[in-house]
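ok so I'm stuck.
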Amino acid sequence: MLPNLESIIPASEVWVEDDGCQPPVSLRPYIGIDYAGEAKDWLLRYIWTNHASLSKK
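replied:
not stuck anymore, here's the structure
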């Protein structure tokens, strides 16, 4: 096995690799949960800051 790789299951060919990627992450409140009382403003939504797939709403 290559260095810095760990097999998820010893007999598996699937592995987890740390490529050093650290995208800018932001926290936002969930969208569309106005019924949740004070929890509607909790910052529990992790987003990749300014990613093209992110909704601008």
